[in-house]
Amino acid sequence: MRFTLILLLSFTFFSTLSAQVILDENHIPVDPAELHSLNSPYSATLTFFYNLREDNYDPETASEVLRTTGQSLEESKRLAIQLKQIFDGNGVYVRINEIPNDPNYIDSLHNNQSRYFFDTRILPGVYLEKQNEEWKFSAFTVDQIQSLHKETYPYGTDKLLNTLPKLGNEVYLGLHFWQLAGLFILILLLFLSHKVITLVLDKGLLYALEKFGYGYVGETYLLPVAKVISIYLIIILTTIFIRILQLPIEIVSWILLLLNAAKPFVVTIVFYKIVDIVSMYFAKLAEKTESTLDDQLVPLLRKTLKAFVVIVGTLYVLKEGLQVDIVPFLTGLSIGGLAFALAAQDTIKNFFGSIMIFIDKPFQVGDWITSGDVDGTVEEVGFRSTRIRTFRNSVMYIPNGKIADATIDNHGLRQYRRFYTTLTITYDTPPHLVEAFVQGLRKIVESHPDTRKDYYNIYFNNLSAYSQDIMFYVFFEVPNWTEELRSRHELLISIVSLANQLDVRFAFPTQTLHMESFPEKKTLVPEYSPDAKSYQAKLQEFVSKELNKKD
Questions:
Q1: What does the alpha-carbon distance between residue 182 and residue 241 come to, in Å, rounded to a whole number?
Q2: pLDDT per residue as tens digits for the range 23-36
Q3: Do the beta carbons of residue 165 and residue 95 sit within 8 Å?
Q4: What average pLDDT score do residues 372-396 get?
Q5: Which burial class, exposed, middle or buried, applies to 154 when counting CB atoms under 10 A from its CB (0-12, 13-18, 19+)?
Q6: Least C-beta-crowded within 10 Å: which of 22, 45, 156, 493?
Q7: Which residues contact 542 (CB under 8 A, 6 or more apart)?
């Protein structure tokens, strides 16, 4: 808003030139009769614009440049004035010394016909055409004048072109009084529009959002977008009303160029901020899923969309706003892109590797993975590399291209965590005690809350060199390694307690020297009861005391 006001106020420091064309004194004909010539594009252009200058106002002569079909003189004069206003309102800057002065001029660039186009981008339907040895604005151009005039001055603003000059033509600071008055009205209109829009957004929109419980979202995300949109509306108003003031064409052309560049620039900012709103929505959806990879994908998506918006917005500002021909740039970019792709093929490989990770989801943030020398917990998945925290607390950065091609063992996706060990007991343990001990181990597994109940293997399965071996093969249903260690701890404590209750001794590699027992000394070998019922009683006592108390 401040920039617009400063830009408008600066116009008062320029002297006005009512002519559409800049006349090179070396090209101005000495004989005034030459100003009525139509024998070339140069002379026809000079005749039309020179006779509509404020200091040489002759619309009747200017209307002769129009190829009219049955219009009256007054209608032809009105059309000539409207065509001049179309040039002025669109900021089409005609440089007379650049127009060809060849009576047999051929437009070899567009259609190889005797036509001259002033601006094929802004006014593609306005051109001079040679017929019967005379260069005039074509009949097609004349038919388009009224519609082009309404497009240039929309919403009834064309009526102000005849109303404002009635305020006075006195010249102050290089501008007519009606132009200064119109400039003041425009500044006042923009100021009031800014205040009204700000009041509606800050009070109305924010109040409505707070009423529905979206106050934080509105203030953080929607309100900045709405304010930028309000700037866009002010630019639109400036673009419409600046044409009515009929300021010097060289100034209007630059103003419209800047305003046309400001439109896509503001739109780019709007979409840039909309990306934050979209990212917030996807972040809410990611929070509802169990996968943590979605949470990592949202920031990457936000960065990608913002980069895309900036690139497209920049190209649009250059092409549509500043009228820069970006085709050579895009052509060079495509050729240079091939060389860049060859030089950065590893980077591109890592980029597509990251895409495959997000599509296949072999792991997610927080998973414990193993792949070759890599062993640790996934902390972050980027577009180039994946960050893994090892169990040494160091950080490894692995290119995604290598991860996509590697074999990954994802421990985090395990539903059950296996625990396998061998319990070795001494050879002097009688069979009925071994059987009671195995039964007790099974009851320990069945009573533990984190063990898998539908599949486990506990059997007396081997006779080794120094022990009788019992296979203890179970699974834990726990989410992480810490809970697995806790469950192992509880299970092993119960096993040791059971062994102590049943007087089961664990074996270890030893050499035993047997000596004759003496009457005054007892042997080291324990005396086992030959009755299996006694051990069953002890097992029941262990179950009732140790296992039931956990329930």
A1: 9
A2: 444 444 435 656 78
A3: no
A4: 86
A5: exposed
A6: 156
A7: 440, 497, 498, 501, 502
Q: What is the mean pLDDT of the chain?
A: 81
- Residue the block writes with tokens 């108390």: 549
Whether 508 has a pLDDT exceeding 70, the answer reads: yes
Distance CA 11, CA 30 (A): 33
- Assess whether pLDDT exceeds 60 at residue 212: yes
Share of the chain above pLDDT 90, in %: 25
Per-residue pLDDT tens digits for 85-95? 999 888 888 88
Angstrom distance (rounded) from CA 78 to CA 336: 54
Say if residues 61 and 81 touch (Cβ distance below 8 Å).
no
> Is there a contact between 285 and 226 (Cβ–Cβ < 8 Å)?
no
Q: What are phi and psi of 418, to 5 degrees?
A: -80, 145
- Report the C-alpha gap between 210 and 225 in whole angstroms: 17
Beta 21-22 vs 94-95: how paired, if at all? parallel
Instruction: With both helix axes pointing from N to C terminus, report the angle between 223-242 and 2-9 in degrees, rounded to the nearest 10.
Output: 20
543 contacts 443 by C-beta, under 8 angstroms? yes
List CB contacts of 545: < 8 A, sequence separation 6 or more.
none
Amino acid letter, 332: G
Half-sphere exposure of 456 (CA within 13 A, CB side): 29
Report the alpha-carbon distance of residue 117 to residue 278 in Å, rounded.
Answer: 45
Question: Distance between CA 90 and CA 94 in Å, rounded?
Answer: 12
Cα-to-chain-centroid distance, residue 394: 32
pTM: 0.58
Q: How many helices (H) and strands (E) does the chain have?
A: 18, 17
- Give tens-digit pLDDT for 74-133: 999 999 999 999 998 888 888 888 889 889 999 888 778 899 999 888 898 999 999 888
CB neighbour class for 320 (10 Å; exposed up to 12, middle 13-18, buried from 19):
middle
Cβ distance 53 to 18 under 8 Å? Answer: yes
Q: Are 128 and 55 in contact (CB under 8 A)?
A: no
Q: What sign for the dihedral angle of Cα 63, 159, 90, 26?
A: positive
> Can you name the residues that pair with 463 across neighbouring β-strands?
468
If one counts every other C-beta atom within 10 angstroms of the C-beta of residue 151, the result is: 12
C-alpha span between 103 and 78 (Å, rounded): 28
- Beta bridge pairs of residue 176: 171
* SS3 call for 346: helix
